[in-house]
Amino acid sequence: MTQGPALNPADPEGAIAAAAKSYSNWGRWGDDDRLGTLNFLDAAKRREGAALVRRGVSFSLAQSFDMDGPQKGWRRRTNPVHTMLDTGTDAALGNQGFPHGIGGADDVIAMPLQCSTQWDGLGHIFDHGFAWNGRRADKVVTSDGDLVTGIEHMAPHVAGRGVLLDVGRVVGEDGELPDGFAVTEEHLTATARAHGVTVGRGDIVVVRTGQLARVRRTGWGDYAGGPAPGLSFTTAGWLHRTEIAAIATDTWGFEVRPNEFEHAFQPLHQIAIPNMGLLIGEMWDLDALAEDCAADGQYAFWLTAAPLPITGAVGSPINPVAVK
Question: Secretion signal: which residues (predicted)?
Answer without folding.
Answer: none
